[in-house]
Amino acid sequence: MQRVDPSIRINVDCTNPGQFFACCGLLELADRLWPGAEGWFEQTEFCIVCDGTLRELMKEISDVEIESLKPDDRKTSPLRIAGPFVPLRVDWWNDLQGKGKDLKVWAGSMEGVRITLAMRNAIRQEECWNGNILNYGVVVYSPEDSRKKVEPFYFDARRALNAHSRDVGFSPNSLSLKTTAYPAVEFFCLVGLQRIRPVPTKQPQVFDYFTWSRSIPVNIVPAVASGLISSIVSHGYRFQNWFRTGQRKHKAFRPAIPLDQA
Predict the structure, then answer these.
(1) pLDDT (tens digit, 9 = 90+) per residue, 83-110?
(2) Does residue 167 form part of some domain?
(3) What one-character DSSP code corresponds to residue 34?
(4) DSSP state string for 111-172
(5) Of 45, 80, 159, 230, whose CB count within 10 A is highest?
(6) Is residue 98 part of a domain?
(7) Does pTM surpass 0.85?
(8) Could you give the number of structural domains in the chain?
């Protein structure tokens, strides 16, 4: 498609892998709502050209049913996003052959279904339906009990910076502190990773991804984000999905560095 003025512009920090894959998730859902949507990165913004607006997209996301396909397994159950989104099955964390499991950040008592619903519910607030949606930070609460806090997946790299107790001198989780999450990043990143994955490197739990500056449809994005179409790639980044707890179970996406500095 020839570049036109985008109907959606989102502020993005491409060194935050959670934000990068959240942009991919936004494009995925926009294309399912308005077939033919295309996207690209433009300096500090992600742009989408489609037949609708961010507000219209968020209204559909706010109302859509998100269903657990294995209700007895709330930790790793595949999810189904229905409504006008075709529907979309999200289950990349169970993909052993495609290394999707290596990107899974939640473990232990963390329930994937509960976190997904909590993050989606948190972005039902119309105050965040603007170009700064990926920087909308709030304390997120359970969909079943509004008094109980829900921790995010830890896709957003801002959470990784002080996630380990050795970084801050104590464990925020063990003290039940109410800390800010970025629910749009968490929700859309979960969606984006279904189709678009980073490239594993020779280092364990270290991955690369690539941005692009030309308007392309979502079905081309996996190849471009993997760096396979060099003529379209603009910048490359490397990040670690590191263990954020001493038990070496729970992980977090760390901030990425440009590949020319890796």
Answers:
(1) 999 899 999 999 877 678 899 999 888 8
(2) yes
(3) S
(4) -HHHHHHHHHHHTT-GGG-STTGGG--B--B-SS-TTSB----S-SHHHHTT-SHHHHSS-T
(5) 159
(6) yes
(7) yes
(8) 1
